[in-house]
Amino acid sequence: MPLVRIDMIKGKSRKYKASALDCIHEGLEEALGIEDWDRFQRIVEIERQDFEAQGKTDDFMIIELTLFPGRSRKQKGNAIRLITEKLCDRLSIAPTDIFIVINEPPLENWGFGGVQKG
Asked: Which of 21, 25, 95, 109 could be bridged to 105 by S-S, CB 3.0 to 4.6 A?
C-alpha cells in the first residue's frame, strides 16, 4: 500500500495532474508489483512564491513515496527510474525537475480502520 504525495507548483491542468498520477502508479506497479487498485495518491499544489527550489523550472515536483518496509534497494531504484522516465516521456519534464524520496516507517506505525499493523 504505497502512499504517494506529489508537491507541485500550482497551475497545472487536470489532465496534466491525472497523467502525473498515472505515471507514478504505473512505475510502482512495474517496479514493486503493486496491484492496479492500490492507489492512494494526492497532489498538493503550492503557489510558486511559496515553493523554494533554486534552479528548478515550474515543472519541478517532489514525490514522496511511503512504503511498507522490505523492498530491496534494486526495487526502490527501479521505482525511481521508471517513475522519472514516465514523467519525462509523457509530460516532458526534465529529469532534474523530479525529486523522489522513499520513506519506510515500521509496520507498527501504520494503522487501518483503527487497528495498528505489525
From this structure: 109
